[in-house]
Amino acid sequence: MGRIAKLTTNPVVIALVAGLAVAGCANKKTPNSAADLGLGAGAATPGSAQDFTVNVGDRIFFDTDSSSIRADAQSTLSRQAQWLNKYRQYAIVVEGHADERGTREYNLALGARRAAATRDYLISQGVAANRLKTISYGKERPVAVCDDISCWSQNRRAVTTLGGAAGS
Amino acid sequence: MKQLLRSILITLPLAAGLAAVATLPARALVEIDVNKGVVEPLPIAITDFLAGDGIGAEISSIVAADLQRSGLFAPIDKSAFIEKVSNPDAAPRFEDWKVINAQALVTGRVSQEADGRLRAEFRLWDTFAGQQLIGEQFFSSKANMRRVAHIIADAIYERLTGEKGYFDTRVVFIDESGSKNARKKRLAIMDQDGANVRYLSDGRAIAMTPRFSPTRQEITYMSYESGQPRVYLLQIETGQRELVGNFPGMTFAPRFSPDGQKVIMSLLRDDGNSNIYAMDLRSRATTRLTNSNAIDTSPSYSPDGTKIVFTSDRGGQPQIYVMNADGSGQSRVSFGGGSYSTPVWSPRGDLIAFTKQSGGEFQIGVMRTDGSGERILSSGFQQEGPTWAPNGRYLMYFKEGAGSGGPRLYSIDLTGRNEQQIPTANFGSDPAWSPLLE
């Protein structure tokens, strides 16, 4: 305890930790754990990309062939919006994805529609439109790779990713 | 290709009796009626071309493989041959070929010219009529000999079926390697039989949906190389690339017009829907053709350029629609149970090929241009993206079995028989057939 207290009261170390967190975001990587940053075990640094992913939830899921924001997704997006409105230094890219049960071009369009629906929901919750961009990956980048519905439902998703500085 | 010279063989001094036969009105000529429901493959003997080295046997094996894969020919095992052809300028002993039921016979020779080029000659014989049907010769470099073999196979196919061949063609496709969640997708081109693979992109960015220009050695495709997915043009021979248009959002699903002067594609709107636009490649003028609050994509022109078939989910799920080339007269044509996408208009103009999803399966099928006469050619776990051979008799598409790890390229004929895998080193998807090469 004494060691942590000493570290966190050292302004040089605090500056270093903040620097690491920002660099990590720019690379779309999150620090492995708070321990890596010398903070000891426990919560991610508030305001870090890891904090967003772990404590807020960076993704929502969709029904087959749908780009409607489900009720469970609405609560995730509301939490995202709260967090994003608190930490305004981040630019945001919303990635839209589809499962493999569709043809390639249609799924690109479907991923784009999911990303736009997600973006619009975040805007409705007060996130500034000029911080938000979208991109569709169609069915090209699944996260789950089995050949049944347990994977397909994870792949029908929109992922809110923290990019570089807002406005860039 | 300029370096390939083709000429008709003059009727060389053949057996006297044969010359007389050749003056008779053609009768009992061997031919294949490709419009019959079930075609019995025609037995054909393809002898090794005479040559100083192995190239004679190589050419004849390429010709035999092409004809066999078409499903219309049954090359006869060489071990059954009785006559050993030693002079391809002389008439063969027709009796020796008739007795093994070879209805057609191919003979040939490869020789070296003084200037270093190779000369390849072939003759196609009707063994039952006892006459020569074709005689042609080609002058080209050794490196071009595979092409010469495909041209010979096309000539035989054309003479015996009465329709254009498709063997002297190439296929542009996406070479897929690596794990499914981080797959590397490279633009690649090969001969239609899987030979001579060449990569056209390095795989650092995802590339997809390449399509051939009907008039030039040029393709259009979509790539993530600039970050946002966008449509590009690529000159195959020079490697020169350019962005098609300068639009704020994603552009995708490109395809050329039949005259090669336009690219038609989807543009993403800010509201998340996609509409179809045509861009004139010379003037860069862009015309919006659809304006629905839905996904409109995968446009494909009719061969006369007057109509466009496309996919739209304006009715709730993906279905096939046809409109006039100016965007007027949009109407739905697919009404079978299930969803339909990736429509492609046949080069003959009479059919539309599509991907259908029904009952948890993916299917490749064709329908008439008004949506009637639907026929499913192939069904399975996952298959999509048909492309037409330039003669309109064959389709190629990509197909993946459950648990197979990735897709492979397949071809099938319009009767739904004769499904064949195209050999590729890695997984393959998004095939697009070239027109017959010039």
UniProtKB/TrEMBL annotation, chain A:
It holds the Pfam family OmpA. Its main location: membrane. Residues 1-23 form the signal peptide. It is found in: Cell outer membrane. GO terms for biological process: cell division. Keywords: Cell cycle, Cell division, Cell outer membrane, Lipoprotein, Membrane, Palmitate, Signal. HAMAP family: Pal (MF_02204). Part of the Tol-Pal system, which plays a role in outer membrane invagination during cell division and is important for maintaining outer membrane integrity. The Tol-Pal system is composed of five core proteins: the inner membrane proteins TolA, TolQ and TolR, the periplasmic protein TolB and the outer membrane protein Pal. They form a network linking the inner and outer membranes and the peptidoglycan layer. This is Peptidoglycan-associated lipoprotein. It comes from Pseudaminobacter soli (ex Zhang et al. 2022).
From TrEMBL, chain B:
The keyword GTP-binding does not apply. One of its GO terms (cellular component) is periplasmic space. InterPro entries: 6-blade_b-propeller_TolB-like, Tol-Pal_TolB, TolB_N, WD40. Pfam families: PD40 (PF07676), TolB_N (PF04052). The keyword DNA-binding does not apply. SUPFAM superfamilies: TolB, N-terminal domain, Tricorn protease N-terminal domain. Keywords: Cell cycle, Cell division, Periplasm, Signal. It is found in: Periplasm. Residues 31-133 form the TolB N-terminal domain. Residues 1-28 form the signal peptide. One of its GO terms (biological process) is protein import. Gene3D superfamilies: TolB, C-terminal domain, TolB, N-terminal domain. Its main location: periplasm. Belongs to the TolB family. Part of the Tol-Pal system, which plays a role in outer membrane invagination during cell division and is important for maintaining outer membrane integrity. HAMAP family: TolB (MF_00671). The Tol-Pal system is composed of five core proteins: the inner membrane proteins TolA, TolQ and TolR, the periplasmic protein TolB and the outer membrane protein Pal. They form a network linking the inner and outer membranes and the peptidoglycan layer. This is Tol-Pal system protein TolB. It comes from Pseudaminobacter soli (ex Zhang et al. 2022). The gene is tolB.
